[in-house]
Write a sequence for this structure.
């Protein structure tokens, strides 16, 4: 092979100095490989452009006619079909460097032909003033190297995109299913044996030990939320794809121009580049899946909880890619000695990359379940701040390297989500009047909407901001019902904002406290339960807030023969008494069968002989406006067997069955396990499981 600049190593040094500049140009990575090979060849000739400080190299290159003429000649000789497109490298590079460039390809080519020195000694490093031609042997060597180098970048984009196509492919299939069942609802009630077996063993159940919405525990401490089997299959498929793509299609060659006889250096650099690009490509869907206003929830019918599962796993894989990117570049620098690594830390883009990687590690650490769940409001603030800093780090890391379109898309998605949140608040009326009161241990919010009014759908919820507390904090409240221009929300205090609200309302002696609130919503998609012959609704505690809407809608729209069974499981009478009016309205309908299961009665708690005669019970009854024993005919004492409740509902049904559950996390898991075991109990009639869970925290 003919060597330029006197030796292969000298050429490699000169060409390597151009490598960062070439990869920095926005839009040039899609140019033909011929462009890079010819530019490197032209750059290997001494045309006087040897000062790489500041913008001096760009100023020289963009105005050096012999160099540009040689570039055009090379493209015309070795890749005539792509010559003009290859020459586009020069104006794009100069524009990126803010240097004027006013030469066309035809002008450069004509100059190259007119000033050609066919006998020029390419082995000499004397200053060249004429244009030259490059032997095919030299061109092919550079082309091979550039194909390996830039081809690897292209593979990074293709493979990163493929992992995202995997997710959007799943979403597309779910969308088709969702649309099909909306157009042909009766089809959702029919079962086919092979599909039923897949649902029973691979899709619906928890991954293992029946644990899904409740956290997996180690010595009694919750440490992680475990995806369902269906979610796990999706996550595993994603991880396998990502892993395979990290280890295929590397073109290592002893004749590499940049790193001759150093396949270890080539692999380190290529792996670092590919993982960095794949990590970047995965950021936009990562942000999309974590947003409240993710249009895919509406399209697919998947829950926010499922998207949060995928959000976390995309984040983990993306961060692993980022760490491999950092490790790969560190190893690449160390191949040239510790001094080279030290010099790398003098570069701004390098330090911003290190900072982003470190911040990403903090994000991964503070997002573990134990911290996230116990201190959710604090987690959320820190998470948003850290992500913002992470994005800033990526911005300054890549602003001169390219790939910014993925960052622009990520910022746009995040900004769109936040803007829509604000719009939602102001559409409903902005700052609204709210009356808050406690009935037993239930917080009831009566909010008067002054703007857009919507008819609440079953399972819908809103995020509510309280001006009295930290105005940036918000909490999801289930929408119980609408009465005129008033919207009734209910919740029970756990920790964080709801605990603050409970203390504030309980400390006042008046019946209701006036508050100013902002309401963002509504969110949540209604489960398609209407075509099922029997609907078994199971609520645990304040989970009735989500289940009540289904019972109310089904009661109002019940078709002949549809059977609605409501089981409400509570610890004691405090919660049930707060919603006495709503439950009595359901029980009065012949289509609805109401069962209330109390784990323990108030009499047992107070040591009294009467279930409904303690002073506290009378106070709760007075607050609710009903007699304390109004629900006694529907009430039994004792914790029910969830499998028994669901099994009875399924086996006693004449046709298809939908099971809808919302309750404490462990109860949800029990219901999932019970329903999964009964999916094939009705033969050709489908048994479907729907779960409403706010367990993404």
């Amino acid at each position: 092979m003919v060597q330029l600049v006197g030796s292969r190593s000298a050429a490699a040094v000169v060409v390597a100095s151009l490598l960062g500049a070439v990869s920095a140009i926005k839009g040039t990575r899609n140019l033909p490989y011929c462009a890079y090979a010819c530019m490197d060849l032209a750059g290997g000739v001494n045309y006087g452009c040897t000062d790489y400080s500041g913008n001096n190299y760009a100023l020289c290159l963009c105005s050096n006619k012999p160099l540009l003429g040689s570039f055009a000649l090379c493209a015309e000789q070795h890749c005539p079909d792509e010559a003009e497109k290859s020459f586009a490298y020069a104006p794009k590079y100069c524009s990126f460097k803010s240097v004027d460039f006013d030469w066309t390809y035809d002008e450069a080519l004509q100059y190259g032909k007119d000033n050609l020195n066919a006998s020029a000694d390419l082995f000499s490093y004397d200053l060249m003033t004429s244009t030259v031609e490059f032997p095919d042997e030299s061109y092919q060597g550079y082309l091979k190297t550039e194909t390996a180098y830039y081809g690897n970048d292209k593979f990074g984009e293709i493979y990163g995109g493929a992992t995202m196509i995997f997710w959007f492919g799943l979403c597309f299939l779910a969308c088709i299913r969702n649309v099909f069942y909306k157009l042909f609802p009766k089809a959702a009630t029919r079962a086919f044996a092979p599909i039923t077996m897949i649902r029973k063993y691979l899709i619906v159940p928890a991954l293992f030990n029946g644990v899904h919405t409740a956290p997996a525990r180690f010595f009694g401490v919750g440490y992680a939320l475990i995806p369902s089997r269906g979610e796990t299959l999706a996550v595993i498929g994603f991880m396998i794809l990502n892993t395979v793509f990290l280890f295929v299609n590397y073109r290592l060659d002893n004749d590499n121009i940049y790193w001759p006889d150093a396949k270890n250096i080539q692999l380190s650099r290529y792996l670092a580049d590919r993982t960095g690009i794949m990590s970047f490509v995965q950021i936009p869907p990562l942000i999309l899946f974590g947003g409240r206003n993710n249009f895919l929830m509406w399209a697919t019918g998947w829950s926010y909880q499922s998207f949060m599962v995928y959000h976390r796993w995309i984040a983990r894989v993306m961060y692993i890619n980022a760490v491999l990117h950092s490790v790969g570049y560190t190893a690449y620098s160390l191949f040239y000695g510790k001094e080279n690594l030290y010099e790398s830390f003098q570069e701004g883009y390098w330090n911003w990359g290190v900072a982003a990687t470190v911040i990403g590690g903090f994000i991964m650490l503070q997002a573990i379940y134990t911290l996230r769940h116990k201190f959710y409001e604090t987690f959320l603030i820190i998470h948003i701040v850290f992500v913002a800093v992470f994005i800033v780090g990526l911005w300054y890391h890549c602003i001169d390297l390219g790939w910014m379109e993925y960052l622009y898309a990520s910022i746009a998605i995040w900004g769109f989500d936040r803007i829509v949140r604000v719009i939602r608040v102001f559409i409903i009326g902005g700052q609204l009047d709210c009356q808050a009161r406690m009935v037993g241990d239930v917080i009831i919010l009566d909010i008067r909407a002054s703007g857009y009014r919507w008819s609440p759908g079953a399972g819908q919820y809103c995020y509510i901001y309280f001006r009295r507390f930290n105005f940036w904090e918000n909490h999801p409240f289930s929408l119980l019902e609408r009465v005129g221009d008033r919207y009734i929300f209910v919740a029970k205090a756990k920790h964080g904002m709801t605990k603050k609200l409970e203390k504030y309302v309980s400390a006042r002696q008046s019946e209701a406290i006036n508050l100013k609130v902002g309401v963002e919503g509504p969110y949540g998609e209604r489960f398609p339960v209407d075509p099922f012959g029997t609907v078994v609704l199971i609520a645990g505690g304040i989970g009735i807030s989500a289940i009540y809407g289904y019972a109310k809608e089904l009661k109002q729209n019940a078709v002949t023969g549809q059977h609605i069974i409501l089981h409400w499981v509570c610890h004691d009478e405090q919660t049930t008494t707060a919603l006495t009016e709503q439950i009595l309205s359901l029980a009065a309908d012949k289509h609805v069968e109401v069962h209330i299961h109390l784990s323990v009665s108030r009499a047992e708690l107070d040591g009294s002989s009467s279930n409904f005669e303690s002073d506290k019970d009378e106070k709760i009854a007075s607050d609710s406006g009903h007699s304390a024993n109004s629900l006694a005919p529907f009430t039994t004492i004792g914790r029910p067997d969830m499998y028994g409740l669901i099994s009875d509902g399924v086996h006693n049904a004449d046709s298809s069955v939908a099971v809808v559950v919302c309750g404490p996390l462990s109860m949800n898991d029990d219901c999932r396990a019970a329903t999964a075991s009964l999916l094939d109990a009705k033969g050709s009639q489908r048994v479907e499981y729907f779960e409403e869970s706010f367990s993404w925290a």
Notes: The longest helix spans residues 136-183. Confidence is low (pLDDT under 50) at residues 1-26, 608-622. The chain has four domains: 8-134, 152-200+228-422, 430-523, 534-691. The first strand starts at residue 216 and ends at 218.
